[in-house]
Amino acid sequence: MKVQIFLEAGLPADTVAELGSLAENFGVDTLWASSFPGHRDPFLSLAMLARNSQRMRLGVVPISPFEVHPMRISDALLTLNELCGGRASLLVGGLGKSVMRVTGLEPTRRVTAVRECVEILKTAARGDLLEYAGEMYRLAGYQATWATDAPPLVYVGATGPAMLKMAGRVADGVMMSDVPLPRMPEVLGNARQGLKGAGRDAKDFRFNNFFAWHIKSDKQESIAEARRELVWRGILQKWHTSPFLGDSDSDFVEANWGAFMQAFLQRTSVIEGIPEHIVEALVANLTFSGDLKAIDGVIEHLKSFEAAGLDEITLKVHGDADKAIRIIGERLVPELS
């Protein structure tokens, strides 16, 4: 299983370069820079690392064709790919809640928009003359003749069946978000259905799951951090939580999502009005948390993910990223490589 690192949004380029060098030395497969409103541009934040790294892939996550036209996404992606010698990756998504809140955008026909964006990006990366007439996007006479490096990898951010099947048809891989182990057969089955329908070999496709990493030397600090960040775990949708909470508690969590957001905004681990057994179950099933003694259990959990068909894990690090990368590099990467 390939281990990947997802950095917090907005880190300065020199910090990204330092953390990236550390991650590469530990054998991390990909370092992802996050795109988030009001934060530093992730493509530019990776530029310094692109010139000063050799093996590790460099990715931007997520970019949506609703916020940036596919032509501009292509220009930025191919420029990053040139800077790092053909090691760029990109995750295309259907537009996250954070961007929707800031911009007021309300995406429609998400699967079609993401599919067309991926088709444009993959064709453009070959340097071919692109005449694209889609339902939502059009390009006439676009050609990046200077894009001569190995093409970048283009992932789709997906959890729902339609987006997963589409990803299997057209993308290089899929990154799911916070999907618990019991849901793996369902989500991987949908992606494989798309692969089969397009006559593609699953061996050439990357199955990735994003998961929150909170492991620290101090267990209390780890759990407090995990609790504060719970609001983002699968946006606490019933589909994510019902396998371990059951229907009633999952409905309760969805109905009280605002309590989790308040805890995040107030930077507190106290989630008002939510029974403790629910909070503990969410932390246990949707995060990797605890002190260093918990790592053996995390490794077994990840091996179960791998046995289910997952071949990549993207770990979102929080707080002191240097310490987190060292723990992941020293304890996880050797066990999973």
From TrEMBL:
Ranges of residues in domain Luciferase-like: 12-284
Keywords, ordered alphabetically: Oxidoreductase
Record flagged with keyword Oxidoreductase:
yes
The yes or no answer to whether the keyword Oxidoreductase is present is yes
Query: What protein name is recorded for this chain?
Result: Luciferase-like domain-containing protein
Q: Which GO terms describe its molecular function?
A: oxidoreductase activity, acting on paired donors, with incorporation or reduction of molecular oxygen
Kindly give the Pfam families that the UniProt entry links to this protein: Bac_luciferase
